[in-house]
Amino acid sequence: MKTRSAPPRGFTLVEVLVALVIVAFGMGAVLAALSSAADSVMRLREQSFAEWVGFNQLATARLQATLPATGTTAGDVEFATAHWQWQQTVTPMDIPGLRRIIIRVRRAAAAPQSAPGASSAGNDTWLATVMGFRGDTLQTPLDVLANWDGGGPGAAPGDGGGPGAAPTPPQPPAPGK
Questions:
Q1: Cα 171 from chain centre
Q2: CA torsion 31→36→42→44, rounded to 10°?
Q3: What is the pTM of this model?
Q4: Inter-residue contact 84 to 108 (CB < 8 Å)
Q5: Which residues does residue 128 pair with via DSSP β-bridges, in sequence order?
Q6: Rounded CA gap, 18 and 27, in Å?
Q7: CB 74 within 8 A of CB 85
Q8: CA-CA to 147 of 20 to 30 Å: which in 77, 83, 98, 125?
Q9: Strand blocks (E) in 67-161
Q10: Could you tell me the mean pLDDT of each successive run of 10 residues in the chain, 177 residues long?
């Protein structure tokens, strides 16, 4: 007697279609994650360039011979093959001779096209904000040190003469000795 062997079993059309749907959803999720990561990298790249533009403008303001004038100024610059717009706000501090400098930067193309005289105070398209300070230096005449720690000129010997204290100048010998 011959025994009948079972016919080879394969995947049905329904099973193949279900598998393809699952793979399609998985690939869609992977592509969405990759796209999101690429967008994040581009956004971080632009923010980094905007910060560099702001730091360059801050360095320019700090290197000027005089304190920057208080108020708001703006300008455009080309950096990393792109056009950037910066806005610098200088405000006085409570300490005389010290100014706070706030610089906001965005792509020049992102600037709103508004009517002349219109305010863009509510516009939040700035990519980076950089803040720094600039002050006048206080300088004493040569050979005179400020009495910051009690060890400067006029301090009694042993009166706080730490490592930052001014050395006592040598005294000329008294006449007749």
A1: 53
A2: -150
A3: 0.59
A4: yes
A5: 105
A6: 14
A7: yes
A8: 98
A9: 71-79, 82-92, 98-107, 128-135
A10: 75 93 96 96 94 96 91 94 95 90 89 47 78 79 59 51 54 65
CA atoms of 149 and 101, how far apart (whole Å): 31
Q: What are phi and psi of 145, to 5 degrees?
A: -105, 145
Alpha carbons 41 and 39: distance in angstroms, whole number: 5
Q: What domains does the chain contain, in order, with CATH numbers? A: 15-111+124-138 (3.30.1300.30)
Taking the C-alpha atoms of residue 56 and residue 132, their distance in angstroms, rounded to an integer, is 12
What is the residue whose two structure tokens read 């793979």? 23
Closest CA to 62 of 24, 36, 90: 90
Q: What sections of the chain are H helices per DSSP?
A: 13-62
